[in-house]
Amino acid sequence: MQVLVTGGAGYIGSHIVEVLLDAGYDVIVFDNLSTGHRQAVAPKAMFVHGDLRQIGQVEDLFAAHEFAGIFHFASYILVPESMQKPWMYLRDNVVASANLLEVATRHGVGRFILSSTANLFDDPQRIPISEEEHVIPGSPYGESKAIAERQLLWMERIHGLKYCALRYFNAAGAHPNGHIGEDHPVETHLIPIVLQVALGQRDHITINGTDYDTPDGTCIRDYIHVLDLASAHVGAFESLADGPSRNYNLGTGRGYSVQEVVETARKVTGHAIPVQIGERRAGDLPALVADNTRIKQELGWEPEFAELGAIIETAWKWHQSHPRGFNG
Ligand code: UDP
């Protein structure tokens, strides 16, 4: 069965490509390589260089291949950047998903998996956060994913497209074989930065605020291993063959503070990892933890990497073997 993975050269996409290939799918990756890496794409996948914002390129792709389903990752993904450059998100991300859905439905594609986000929940009334929570995007990035979810709703109603939106909490870790992992042009995420300190590439990590209303004053996040994300994608895709369209909140259900992440990384790496205390980062919520009851019950999904230490170990293996990322 042939499937399309947009953004399959990126961090999460490249891991899903490997899991799909292992599960026996034929995979075509479509990526503009603006932030992804050609080397991250498994050799067994076919690679097509292209940009979803150019509808002609999307039409050419669908004219040349028949897809049983689509996994859509290609988008801009940084909350702080989206606050500075909102139109990258409110225009480019939205146009990309619109072009993809327009052409996909014209070609009768039946199943669609959307990479969505916990940034839909800017004012959660309850932690852990369930699918019942009101969608209040926390940034133009979150808004662009909320719009993509709405686009899907209409494509289901009008064209019968089956979809699943997976709202991730904090994706982390790397493939345990150490050959693919996180490599962003500008690193802003906590775990890679902490490990770059352990490698001696940075002097210290700055903790963004220690005065939050949490046990140790630092922000709490739900870190989920990228392969656990991947298995949820495959499970969600397969469930759409005879099940309804769904949204799932996707995390381990357990939160760790920034301070706990640093301490765990010290244990895993054996390095001191100096810390400085900084100001709060605009837009950060004190705690984001997923209620994953629905996906566990409906798909039988369970995280394999339930402990933060095991997640950081895989990331450490990647950073040690690729200290300069894919191009080093
Ligand atoms: N964080 C931090 N220092 C850093 C990078 C991140 O204290 O150098 C904090 C950040 O403010 C947030 C948490 O770590 O509270 C996770 O941030 P990340 O950017 O990894 O993911 P986000 O939760 O923003 O998606």
Label the CATH architecture of the largest domain: 3-Layer(aba) Sandwich
Helix content: 25-40%
- The total domain count is 2
The CATH superfamily of the largest domain bears the name NAD(P)-binding Rossmann-like Domain
Describe this structure in words.
- α2 packs parallel to α4, α4 (86-106) runs parallel beside α5 (140-159) and α8 (258-269) packs across α10.
- The chain folds into 2 domains: 2-171 and 224-250, NAD(P)-binding Rossmann-like Domain (Rossmann fold, 3-Layer(aba) Sandwich); 173-222 and 253-290 and 305-327, UDP-galactose 4-epimerase, domain 1, CATH 3.90.25.
- It is built from 10 helices and 14 strands.
- The protein is globular and about 55 Å long.
- The protein is 38% helix and 18% strand.
- A 7-stranded parallel beta sheet has the order 3-2-1-4-5-6-11, with helices on both faces.
- α1 (11-22) links the parallel β1 (2-6) and β2 (26-31).
- It is of the alpha/beta class and 328 residues long.
- The structure holds uridine-5'-diphosphate.
- Uridine-5'-diphosphate (UDP) binds at residues 79, 170, 188-190, 193, 205-208, 219, 221, 258, 281, 284.
Layout of secondary structure:
Layout: E1 2-6, H1 11-22, E2 26-31, E3 46-49, H2 55-64, E4 69-72, H3 79-84, H4 86-106, E5 111-117, H5 140-159, E6 162-168, E7 170-172, H6 190-198, E8 205-208, E9 220-221, E10 223-225, H7 226-239, E11 246-250, E12 256-257, H8 258-269, E13 275-278, E14 287-288, H9 293-299, H10 308-321
Parallel strand pairs: 1-2, 1-4, 2-3, 4-5, 5-6, 6-11, 7-10, 8-13, 9-14
Antiparallel strand pairs: 9-12
Helix pairs in contact: 1-7, 2-4, 4-5, 6-8, 6-10, 8-10
Bound molecules: uridine-5'-diphosphate.
The site of uridine-5'-diphosphate has 15 residues, from helix 6 and strand 8.
